[in-house]
Design goal:
The complex is a heterodimer of chains A (474) and B (323).
Chain A lengths: L8 H15 L1 H16 L1 E4 L4 H14 L5 E6 L3 H14 L5 E7 L2 H13 L6 E3 L2 H4 L2 H4 L4 E3 L4 E4 L4 H10 L1 H15 L7 H18 L8 H28 L4 H27 L11 E2 L7 H4 L1 E2 L2 E2 H19 L1 H11 L1 H6 L4 H26 L2 E2 L7 H11 L11 H20 L4 H34 L8
Parallel strand pairs in A: 2-3, 2-4, 4-5
Antiparallel strand pairs in A: 1-6, 7-10, 8-9
Chain B lengths: L1 H27 L7 E6 L5 H16 L3 E6 L4 H13 L4 E4 L8 H9 L4 E4 L12 E5 L1 H16 L4 E7 L4 H18 L7 E8 L4 H14 L3 E6 L2 H13 L7 E3 L5 H8 L6 E3 L2 H16 L7 E4 L2 E3 L1 H5 L6
Parallel strand pairs in B: 1-2, 1-3, 3-4, 4-5, 5-11, 6-7, 6-8, 8-9
Antiparallel strand pairs in B: 10-12
Helix pairs in contact in B: 2-10, 3-4, 5-6, 7-8
Classes of the chains: A alpha/beta (474), B alpha/beta (323).
Chain lengths: 474, 323
Amino acid sequence: MPEDVGESAAGRWRRKLLDLLSRNLSVVVLALLCLISSVATWREQNPITSRSGAAVARQVLEACPAPCSVLVVARDTEADRVFARAIEEGLDDSGVRIAGRVFGQPRDVRLELERLAGLDGSLDAIATHRIASDWGPVRSAGARVFSPRSYYWPTFLTPRNLLNVVNQNADIAIIALGMTLVILTAGIDLSVGSLLALAGVIAAVAAQEWFGGAAASPAGLLAAMLLGVAAAALGGLLSGTMVTAFRVPPFVATLGLMMLARGLALILAVGHQRRLVGGGAEGTPEAVRVDATAFAWLGNGAVLGVPNPIVLMLVLFIAAHVLMTRTMFGRYVYAVGGNVEAARLSGVPVTAVLLAVYCLCGAFTGLAGIVDASRFEGGRPNAGELYELQVIAAVVVGGASLAGGRGRIAGTLIGAMIIAVIQNGLNIAGVASYEQKVVFGALILGAVLLDRLQPKIASRRARMTRGSTPTPVQ
Amino acid sequence: MKRLLVGTAAAIALAALGACAGGMDGGESGSVARGTIGFSAMTLKNPFFKIIADSLTAEAERHGFDVVVTDAERDVNRQSQQVDNFLASGVVAIVLNPVDRIAIGPAVRRANEAGVPVFTSDLQAVADGVEIAGHVGTDNYQGGLLAGEAMIEALGEAGGEVLVLHFKQANSCVLRVDGFRHAIGEYNRDRTEGRIEIVAELEGGGLRDEGYRAMADGIQAYPDLAGVFAINDPSALGARTALEQAGRADQVRIVGFDGEIAGREAIRDGKIYADPIQYPDRMGVMTVQNIVRYLDGEDFERVHLIPTELYRQADAEQDPTLD
């Protein structure tokens, strides 16, 4: 092997650097991926802000001084209104006349231009943003068009996209936190996708039928959601019981629950639709719609500009991290995953730990389920299909070993983000979903391959720190 | 060993880079004269939606737009994410085949709030408070009526038991079956003999394999079937396979829907009796024309429904697009 141990200072530094890199490989991969995504999405950006509005006002003053008459064109969105206000403020007291303002669609511009043509007085300029400057009526108005200069910046690194990336995968990340505990005990939970759907459907049906439908109070909605989470936790407890009391392999126990929960979700949804149309007719497996608008807050609202699912994900991440690193329970989980017999002999309550782990995984899944239901304003019996695979992929890519005993909560979060960034990068670069599947497959194989190599690396590292002559390992 | 580790990391990164770069070439090949249109298809596994995607892309390029085609794979979660990605990358317009007419609502509302117009084709979105700039689809109720007429014609004076292979998740299919039921009801009204009874609606999923399984079950449950109405060609072809395997292909007549190539070939070969045919190519073209009119500030029909036409074996024999 080429590395010399303890030879020169440079060699030592090189070794330390490589060591750090290999320990935090997933962070390095994530950083690399962000870099790649940024390069691949280097695009023209069209600013719609108060600053760009002020810049347009300056352009107008320079090129079309008073007495110039200007039409301000923007769309009917919040950002557009801020932009338009900045233009007008920039033109205040300059003698430039605001002939009119449009907040709407191209059609509204056309109508406004027709209105202005009916009045006398010419229109000299249109102040707007790049997007609206391409609209037919703006281009053919016969006036000079002013819009902010566009600039180049990675679309990946825009705040909107970064929030998208995390928000879209917050549910996967939340479930992956629970799945990490299960995988640490050398178990697996295939039922998460179905439990997610079941939790969402139960919360939706409860909100609609028991807690008042459109008139449901916030407390009622909260109760409905907790019911959904409780159902998923109960599902997890059932898996845990099968695994501990009856020694059913986790793979089989959770496979059974996976089908059971999916079937229940569909039955509940179809039953609800049947009651809606007044019995008799066959129900459809459509989403169970929740009429209370407050129900959508968890999935679509935001706190200080950060979407709620991300906030929930971060809170759960911190809770899970503390649980696994600072508590006795966390040590127990690692002990059970490392060696069940040794754990049992040293007094770890193995059965209780396993039950708690599956139950927690179910509860986390239930939380993701109500996020999903809230996001789509109703419980979807088909939600979460194939989620189990994405979740397991996130945990494995995050460095946890499927053999149990090794893995970190922080690693899982990074794993989930790696998958999120790849998916997003491929999406905004316009790569078709078929190619995406190939990339993900390769990623998972790569991660598992690393996992297989890990023990060898660890033993090598141990030898090196002891200072003995390294022997080639193959 | 560490080299191997770093090498693996680099390989993963390179694979991603290659994929991204490949995508980028595709994205920037056409000049971005009038901006990009984002299209989220319901599922590109069904040729029907592929035709919409292709005709939409061709027409849009003719008008100087770029098109990004994505496949929602019948998952409204995925489709919502695609809408969010379109918004982040600054498209001028979004075109959807809504996977779920209600659950897609929040995503469409986000597009409305961002000021990006949303157009639908094939399926309509009906969620509360969403603004759809324009819709082009098939007149599915009229298509269902034609399917009913075809079934009456196929069964003749004898009538008999009929099964429906449904896909209830799609409202377009609900309308087709409504139209079909109406036509059959009208036919039965003054008859005591030779009536047509719709004995069941089974979920055919609108897919070949699911249609096959549903039909295989249907044969067991209803041994006296005389006809099947499948709400699209894939499920009709799946039903045909099940009937052939059960040795019942001669006794049970199939009416499909769509008129895609495989369906029309089956009609030519007498495997399907007839189809009300849809015009997905026109949907793609007209949707782009609506986008152009929208951006030019012109008025256009907000909801345009294209009527279907019945396509029988005689039409297939003269169809120049079949070899």
